[in-house]
Design goal:
The protein is mainly α. Helices cover about 60% and strands about 5% of the residues. It is built from six helices and two strands. The two termini are about 35 Å apart. About 15% of the residues are buried.
Length: about 170
């Protein structure tokens, strides 16, 4: 990378912060996949589904770059997230009414049981920064007054991502 000269009198704090974030994100992207996954994130099932969809969307956005050598760790991490967060549907089994009542009485399922996702520190940092940057980009979006459905869906997805961010930061 070529060296850039910067006039210190013309740069403001916002530009400095943006460059710092870009450099830290680039360095963390290079470190992903090189350390052991020893940190645990406890997510609800809905948040886990959201992480899976975010991983799919990140893979779509980075499709051209994922074949390069410096992005192998990111590709492996996104594949891991997609695999861990995949929703497995059980095949339906036909039962009689008696068997259904017995099954309902015998099984006690807890609602919102936390599911564990293991990540390394660099992967956790990458996940936090990518989710928080998506929130900031969503806050910048503006719509016309007649785009009520888009506004509502954006507001809903913003709330879901805020909940996910809280669960990741715990």
């Amino acid at each position: 990378m070529a060296k850039q000269t910067v006039n210190p009198g013309r740069i403001n704090n916002l530009e400095m912060m943006n460059q710092y974030k870009q450099m830290s994100m680039a360095s963390s992207m290079l470190k992903i996949g090189k350390s052991k996954r020893k940190y645990e994130i406890h997510l609800s099932s809905k948040s886990k589904k959201l992480v899976g969809t975010l991983a799919k969307e990140m893979k779509k956005q980075m499709a051209g770059q994922l074949g390069e050598k410096h992005t192998e760790g990111i590709k492996l991490f996104l594949d891991y997230l997609e695999l861990e967060c995949a929703v497995i549907k059980k095949p339906k089994v036909k039962m009689t009414k008696e068997e259904k009542t017995k099954a309902k009485k015998s099984t006690k399922v807890k609602a919102n049981t936390p599911e564990i996702l293991k990540v390394s520190f660099e992967e956790l940092d990458f996940l936090k920064t990518s989710v928080s940057s998506s929130v900031t980009e969503m806050n910048k979006m503006t719509f016309k007054w007649y785009s009520l459905l888009k506004k509502l869906s954006l507001r809903l997805s913003r709330k879901q991502i805020h909940i996910l961010l809280k669960e990741i930061k715990k």
